[in-house]
Amino acid sequence: EKAAREAKTHTSWIDRDPAYEAALAGFVEAILEDGGFLGELRSFVEPLIGPGRVSSLAGTLIRLTAPGVPDIYQGSELWDLSLVDPDNRRPVDFDLRRRLLAELDGLGPEQALLRADEGLPKLLVVQRALALRARRPDAFGPEAGYEPLSVAGERADHVVAFARAGTAVTVVPRLVLGRRAGWEGTWVDLPAGGWRDVLTGEEWEGGRRGLWELLARFPVALLERR
Predict the structure, then answer these.
(1) What is the model's pTM?
(2) Which of 95, 93, 89, 119 is nearest to 107 (CA)?
(3) Do the beta carbons of residue 167 and residue 135 sit within 8 Å?
(4) pLDDT digits 0-9 by tens, 67-100
């Protein structure tokens, strides 16, 4: 109803068409009671869930590590399937988030991924990226450098990689749905020195590293200089 009014094609906030709005509401209610339609909708959506979640993790990590102020909309620490206002103004279940945060300390990336339906992979990224910012404020402040990292190989177009002040490195996939399975034959050039992935605990040496190694345990990587 809100979208229809703001489109101002058949109805609007200042010139409402009650008959049109009633017909629109009836249409929506009818298709949501149509088993055939719902079956087709599920078959369309289900293949998008996994890639969509990976894209969400990638976008979240970029927002938390790119230049600028990290943007976390209240309540979006987990998967957020709401539409824009007023749908996203619903009350936030902070007790749920506190409980899941308390559980994160004892979970590895594999365990978080097994509970993906609860949103734990996204919460893991948010919590550990913010903890890194707290430990390394100079790497994310207004004077911190930003350096794109070189990516090469078969799926280089599906990777975004950058370093902040030579202290933190972000590596995430892009165009997830269009990427063929696996990262074999694709590399990223890490800055020299020792690195630790704060999302998995894996340790790496700088230089050319295969994406199939860096992203073997979790879909995105956040490296901190050791």
Answers:
(1) 0.90
(2) 119
(3) no
(4) 998 888 888 999 988 887 777 788 899 999 999 9
